[in-house]
Write a structure and sequence with these properties.
This protein has 205 residues and is an alpha/beta fold. Helices cover 25% and strands 28% of the residues. A hairpin with a 6-residue loop joins strand 1 and strand 2. The longest helix has 16 residues. It starts with a helix and ends with a strand.
Length: 205
């Protein structure tokens, strides 16, 4: 592998962010920080007078993390509650409605993902003269359909962990279709594929 190929692959993998636990230990589910962040950012779009400019997700208390029911994907975090550190830009004359960000994220993390978000820390880092409208990220490319696509809520399979750095056959990657709760889709996928397969959500519509 050439240095350029290696560097490109490392950057691509880093763009996924942390592989966060989804649901409970028995669910064998993970979600990329990028995918979870996109859902949480979108949930905050209706909060007036501010925009999320940075969002980081990590375990709230690594010492209290549990043991997963299946081997995790490479670098996957153990089951546990998740903490969000959010930076926002604000504009207008009104008082920033940062509490709306917290409420939106807590609601979306449960209803859309099944992510155990227990803490949201918010920092106002910019004061703007005009509204900011960050562009939504593009979803990952799909790959050839397989058996799990028969499960309602699976939009397509992905291969974000594949490539020169390698992937594990014990981890299946899926993109979740709009209108479906990610952790429930993962449970159905694992019921179809059987065995000790972990499922990683790389996108949630």
């Amino acid at each position: 592998m050439t240095p350029d190929v290696w560097s490109t692959e490392v950057r691509r993998r880093l763009a996924l962010g942390r592989l966060l636990p989804l649901g409970d230990a028995a669910d064998g589910a993970w979600v990329t920080e990028r995918a979870a962040g996109a859902v949480l950012r979108a949930a905050c779009a209706s909060v007036p007078g501010l925009a999320v400019t940075s969002l980081r997700l990590a375990l709230a208390d690594p010492a209290a993390a549990g043991v997963p029911a299946v081997p995790p994907p490479p670098s996957g975090l153990p089951p546990g509650d998740v903490r969000a550190v959010v930076e926002v830009a604000v504009w207008g004359d009104g008082r920033p409605r940062t509490e709306g960000v917290r409420e939106a994220m807590l609601s979306a993390s449960s209803a859309r993902l099944g992510l155990r978000l227990s803490r949201v820390d918010i920092r106002v880092t910019s004061l703007l003269d005009a509204p900011a409208h960050p562009a939504p990220p593009d979803p990952p490319p799909g790959v050839h359909p397989g058996p799990p696509l028969s499960v309602p809520g699976v939009a397509f399979l992905t291969s974000e962990l594949a490539g020169p750095l390698g992937a594990t056959p014990e981890c299946l990657e899926v993109a979740v279709a709009p209108g479906h709760r990610a952790v429930e889709v993962v449970r159905e996928v694992r019921a179809v594929v059987g065995g000790g397969v972990a499922v990683l959500v790389t996108w949630a519509g």
